[in-house]
Amino acid sequence: MPPLFNLIRDICLLRRGPQDLPYSLPALTGVAGGCVIVQLGVAVARNTPLGGVLAGAILWLAVTLGALNLILSLRGLRNRFVQSATALLGCALAFTLLSVPIALLVGEPPITPDQLTPLQLLLGLVSLPLLIWKIIVDAHVFRHSFDVPFLSGVVIALLWIIAAMALAGAAGAPAM
């Protein structure tokens, strides 16, 4: 499985696209399971109730895969689903792993902006380049998956992140 990790890394570095991943349902299942496990691990480390996090993670996974499948089907590109989903989830997993130290250092998220500590504010600024990189990588994956221009991929990536955060907020779980 190390070649899969290398391919995900190359996608995150914009060297390859989802079309370079093998068509592998076990790889997709493993990456999806990894996303859920990492979210649960972060919840345990932050002393967050696991019930809401597990429900939110499964809901996020179902909505992500469902929306991806719907868009690909509407564009007549359904045959790209497994590779696109593996790329999208694999990159999300990579960025989650990169952001775990920041999430653990932030501690309890503030309820209002006035409650931000200087450390939390600094960590928010430090995580901004990571967020921008994630948007670019997601746009890259969407561009190749949906066969759209890069700018359209950026818009889709931004909407995708906003939808994930709204979904997580509605479910009472941290966004991935």
Can you describe this structure?
This protein is mainly α and 176 residues long. The protein has one domain. Helix content is 76%, strand content 0%. It has 6 helices and no strands. Helix 1 crosses helix 4 and helix 3 runs antiparallel to helix 6. The radius of gyration is 16 Å and the shape is globular. The mean pLDDT is 88.
SS strand fraction:
under 5%
The topology string of helices and strands comes to HHHHHH
Work out the count of structural domains: 1
Biggest pleated-sheet summary: none
- The low-confidence runs, each spanning 5 or more residues with pLDDT under 50, are none
How many individual β-strands? Answer: 0
Kindly provide the radius of gyration, computed on alpha-carbon positions and rounded to a whole number of angstroms: 16 Å
Outline type:
globular
Euclidean distance between termini CA atoms: 23 Å
What is the residue-averaged pLDDT? 88
What's the total helix number? 6
Helix content: over 70%
Class by SSE composition: mainly alpha
